[in-house]
Specification:
There is one protein chain. This protein is α/β, with parallel strands linked by helices and about 250 residues long. It folds into two domains: about 80 residues, Helix Hairpins, CATH 1.10.287.90; about 140 residues, Sandwich (Immunoglobulin-like), CATH 2.60.40. It has four helices and eleven strands. A five-stranded mixed sheet has the order 4-3-2-6-9, with no helix packed on it. A four-stranded mixed sheet has the order 1-10-11-5, with helices on one face. The longest helix is centred in the first third of the chain and has 34 residues. Bound molecules: copper (II) ion. The site of copper (II) ion (CU) has 7 residues, from loops.
Length: about 250
């Protein structure tokens, strides 16, 4: 099976957000549309007001200045209307924020550790992991394409890693993020996730991948000279295939 199906890599001159692959990202997209609508209405209204004032209140049209200097009603309106608009924005914003923090019963935990300049991952939720050293621990470095043969040049430049993180779809996942040296940030736009990896601190995230695919991300906290060269690749597999992968990895099957 090719792992290149439905690639969610960024495209050239991409200006819009990535296609959502998690509930969080779907929420972010809906909120983004909501904000964009409000923003467009406000920009059109303010621009109209500005041009109207410039064209109709020039000294050519109005020789004598009016004695109008103050209006209490106007003050009340232009204070309360923006306040109401902010209230209108805050409701879905807080809903989304608290929905992201919602702790569900995770079926799997992935430990993510940022290093200068690579990511290391660990899955140790399986009984056999405790009994032996057969746990799923691996290190993901960026793949340098320059030296590869022509047949393998189809990989994404600066986005591919030597190993891909394999996670099940339609499963509640918990991500535990930390760093070994300096600040990093584990970011995958398709999941709507971005969490700082701080040394000495453990950050927790919830993830529910809704569809199969290959998702790309990059470190998003400046962490040194090779900050731009520590990408993240996550493969979302159907649960049954994920189980098969685990069984083969742990030599249980
Ligand atoms: Cu970095």
């Amino acid at each position: 099976m090719s792992l290149f199906f439905n690639c969610d890599s960024p495209s050239i001159w991409q200006t819009y957000l990535s296609d959502p692959a998690s509930i969080t990202m779907e929420g972010i997209l809906i909120f983004n549309k909501h904000l964009f609508f409000l923003l467009t209405v406000i920009v059109i209204f303010v621009a109209w007001l500005l041009f109207y004032t410039i064209f109709y209140y020039t000294e050519y049209n109005n020789e004598y200045a009016t004695p109008f200097v103050h209006s209490k009603e106007l003050e009340i309106i232009w204070t309360s209307v923006p306040a109401l608009i902010l209230l209108l924005i805050s409701t879905p914003s807080f809903t989304l924020l608290y929905a992201m923090d919602e702790i569900s019963e995770p079926e799997l935990s992935l430990k993510i550790l940022g290093h200068q300049w690579f990511w290391s991952y660990e899955i140790s939720d399986f009984n056999s992991c405790q009994k032996s050293d057969q746990n799923l621990k691996y290190v993901c470095y960026m793949m340098v394409l320059d030296g590869l043969p022509a047949t393998k040049q189809g990989y994404f430049r600066l986005l591919e890693t030597n190993k891909r993180v394999i996670l099940p779809t339609n499963t509640h996942l918990r991500l535990l993020v930390s760093a070994a040296d300096v600040l990093h940030s584990w970011t995958v736009p398709s999941f709507g996730l971005k969490v700082d990896a701080c040394p000495g601190r453990l950050n927790q995230l919830n993830l529910f991948i809704k569809r199969v695919g290959v998702f790309f991300g990059q470190c998003s906290e400046i962490c040194g000279v090779n900050h731009g060269f520590m990408p993240i690749v996550v493969v979302g597999l159907p649960t049954i295939q994920f189980h098969h992968y685990i069984m083969t990895k742990l030599e249980l099957g």
